[in-house]
Amino acid sequence: MYSHIASNRRKSFLLVAVFIGILAAAGYIFGYLNGSGYFGLGFALIVSLGMTAISWFWGDKIVLASTGAKRIESRDQNTYLWNMVENLSITAGVPMPALYIVDDPSPNAFATGRDPARASVAVTTGIVALLENEELEGVLAHELSHVKNYDMRFMMLVAVLVGALTILGDSFFRFGFLGRRGNRDSGGGILAIVGIAFLILSPIIGEIIKLAVSRSREYLADASGALLTRYPEGLARALEKIAAHSQPMQRASHATAHLWIANPYGSRQRFASLFSTHPPVEDRINRLRLMADAR
Description:
Blueprint: H1 2-34, H2 39-67, E1 70-72, H3 79-92, E2 98-102, E3 109-113, E4 119-124, H4 125-130, H5 133-148, H6 151-182, H7 188-212, H8 216-229, H9 232-244, H10 281-294
Parallel strand pairs: 2-4
Antiparallel strand pairs: 1-2, 3-4
């Protein structure tokens, strides 16, 4: 457990270093090609450090806003969910996370945040309606395990920084063509080339980074969640029901897809083959039932 937490911390810093390095290289190439020297490198470093700071301090809020999650401010707003998360947090020995709900009939859930003291857990209205008490408890215990293991911080940085690369590529591409039309010496052609390179490479880089998120983190969160509730069958049944419910989410996004406990595009979509950071659900269920049999 402790080695997994240390590994997640190292991966978080490595991810930030890779992100800054990619932007710095793009800025240097841009400055070299248009003759502005180290201006491009300096500008890229300022942008990358600014984006890293935004991701670190406000990444969870960006992720929550992008999913349309609404915060449950008090116990009175949803006593059932509040009591369940509070009891599990006490058992896990972590502060109770901020609780959010996403108005979506598709059953799903995720955790995000910088550390356990600043964590958030979000569930859809669909998962609350679909699952029985012990099943929903298993899902929430799984998400609290991501909080305790610091998986959520690394996954949050992946979501925001990879999304920033895509937005930058799109901006370079658009401003490049606008610049070419307005001023032949504006460097618009170079911006367009850099933009095209970003648009091509950013999804590839994103998938490579997501592959670095070991599938073992899901197995570990399943096992940790099952130990927390002392009822592996609850999470196993929950995964069965979620897998059988293939309705895609209304606000599914490739940038945040790896955060959710289930594929937000639905289990029968082609994207399932790319959702490689999550192991096969049948394997997860089998492992949970083996844990139950071993008790």
